[in-house]
Design brief:
Helix 2 packs across helix 3. This protein has one domain. Strands 1-4 form a two-stranded antiparallel ribbon. It has a two-stranded antiparallel ribbon with strand order 2-3. The radius of gyration is 20 Å and the shape is elongated. A hairpin with a 5-residue loop joins strand 2 and strand 3. Helix content is 28%, strand content 16%. The chain is of the alpha+beta class and 162 residues long. It contains 5 helices and 6 strands; from the N terminus they run ααββββββααα. About 17% of the residues have low confidence. The two termini are 22 Å apart.
């Protein structure tokens, strides 16, 4: 393997050679970065099934990488231990299309730029928590030793090489 030529931000060598492994590690690390900021009122769940009613007729299942949920008050028990819970209650809220406004923020950056710190919105009464994507990325990269796993010999595709 060639000497490591680290690319700041999202590394195209990871995307080409180890994306699934990196993605899994990254999602678990995002949960780890969020939980200290969320608990005890919220928690982050990985690939948790959610339901979306877009047209009031067809319910759709989605599995986001991470879902932020409010903690149930009865789930807090001082002193630890193990508890068995029944199946989670699924709450489906139909939203008429004319009242639903698309709410999304899109972040863009170029190869070689650090990943952004993004706000994670919670309920209205709570401030957003900040998630430093570059910090989490660096932790995953170092822990999994991608510097040793990846082959940096192949040239980058032309648009990325500039």
């Amino acid at each position: 393997m060639a000497a490591h030529h680290r690319i700041v931000g999202m590394d195209p060598y990871i995307e080409a050679q180890a994306w699934r492994d990196f993605h899994t590690n990254f999602i678990v690390s995002l949960q780890g970065a969020l939980m200290p900021q969320l608990a005890p009122k919220y928690f982050a769940r990985i690939e948790e099934q959610i339901y979306i009613d877009e047209d009031l007729e067809e319910q759709q299942k989605r599995f986001p990488d991470i879902a932020i949920e409010t903690a149930r008050p009865e789930a807090s028990h001082p002193g630890g231990g193990v508890a068995l819970a029944p199946e989670p209650n699924l709450l489906t809220i139909p939203v008429p299309v004319e009242y639903r406004l698309p709410v999304a923020e899109v972040y863009a950056w170029k190869v070689g730029q650090p990943l952004p710190t993004i706000p994670i919105p919670l309920l209205r009464e709570d401030p957003d928590v900040l998630l430093n994507l570059q910090e989490v990325y660096e932790q995953v990269y170092a822990r999994a030793r991608y510097d040793l796993q990846l082959d940096f010999n192949p040239p980058l595709p032309e648009p990325l090489a500039r």
